[in-house]
Write a structure and sequence with these properties.
single chain; five-stranded mixed β-sheet; 328 residues; 60s Ribosomal Protein L30, Chain: A
Length: 328
């Protein structure tokens, strides 16, 4: 009995499942959803990045203007109206094709801008190796072309002389055709030098810049520019440097061509049109009076009957106008 009283009973409980909460399989579902969402996100980013800029603008405008919930003050749409809203507001295509002719017309280029583009195209086609030494710009209806020297590029003149180098002749020949269309006296040729001076006083940068401008004029005339188009040939020495911070820079040794481009004449407006009123119509000539009816041949008997009827109608009209007796 004593052994039975001191005997211990041990009960073992085995938990089923064998894995703790941290080692369960629920995390796999969350991870799969995360990977799927990331894949969809990067796919959308790739598609958006591959679109051209115009398409992106159209998509942005679409999402800024279109709203399925528009018109609902509470932000909620009754379930009964969803199908109707989807039919009325949802367009068939998310992105509409871009129109080739936009509603807002592009700004029309001026004649000077068109001439400048023609000169740039000629430079790119004929002298691409010198495009870094030629600057084309427009200013107040004028086309300005600067052909300058570069320390690492091609010189335009022999040192201290006015003789054009072959590269300078090629550059002037490239820009000559657009300048050949200049009107009478609308082309100016300028010569510019750097700030280096001569030792003597008999020949200075003024004479050198003028002679170089004249040499450029002769080369342009050989390339098709009319003498009548040239209105001025001048030398400015070093008074108008291209690089004012470096007066001795080779960029200051240049030829400048300035062409004034006349604007097309606009049709004159009438005074009424200037005031916003429609133009007055030209006075019409008065209509000619109708021609009298032609004479109709009539027999004497019929004419007599007609005269009697006229007399009877006349007598009746006279009697109707007579006043009764005693009426004053």
């Amino acid at each position: 009995m004593a052994d039975k009283e001191h005997k211990k009973i041990i009960i073992k409980k085995v938990k089923k499942g064998g894995h703790g909460g941290a080692h369960g399989g629920s995390w796999k579902v969350a991870y799969a959803d995360f990977v799927t969402a990331m894949m969809a996100f990067f796919l959308v980013m790739w598609l958006v990045n591959s679109l051209p800029k115009e398409k992106k603008v159209e998509i942005s405008k679409y999402f800024q203007s279109y709203s399925l919930l528009e018109g609902s003050p509470s932000g909620l749409v009754p379930a009964t109206d969803l199908s109707q809203i989807a039919q009325e507001q949802n367009p068939p295509n998310i992105v509409e094709p871009i129109s080739e002719n936009p509603s807002s017309p592009a700004k029309e280029k001026s004649e000077a801008e068109k001439a400048a583009e023609a000169i740039k195209e000629a430079i790119e086609a004929k002298t691409p190796d010198m495009k870094d030494q030629i600057i084309v710009k427009t200013e107040a209806g004028k086309v300005i072309v600067d052909v300058f020297e570069d320390a690492k590029g091609k010189p335009l003149f022999a040192l201290g002389r006015s003789d054009l180098t072959p590269d300078a002749k090629r550059a002037l020949a490239a820009v000559a055709p657009p300048f050949a269309k200049a009107g009478k006296g609308l082309l100016t040729i300028e010569g510019h030098t750097d700030a280096f001076t001569y030792a003597g006083e008999r020949f200075t940068n003024w004479e050198l810049s003028t002679e170089r401008a004249s040499a450029a004029r002769r080369e342009l005339e050989r390339s098709g520019v009319s003498q009548d188009s040239i209105g001025q040939v001048a030398g400015f020495a070093a008074t108008k440097p291209m690089d004012a911070q470096a007066p001795f820079s080779p960029k200051n040794r240049r030829i400048r061509l300035v062409m004034t481009v006349p604007q097309p004449v606009q049709p004159s407006k009438s005074p009424d049109a200037a005031k916003g009123q429609p133009p007055a119509k030209a006075q019409e000539a008065p209509a000619a009076p109708p021609a009298p009816p032609p004479d109709i041949p009539m027999s004497p008997e019929k004419r007599e009957i007609l005269d009697q009827q006229i007399e009877r109608l006349y007598d009746q009209s006279i009697k109707g106008k007579q006043k009764p007796d005693g009426v004053q």
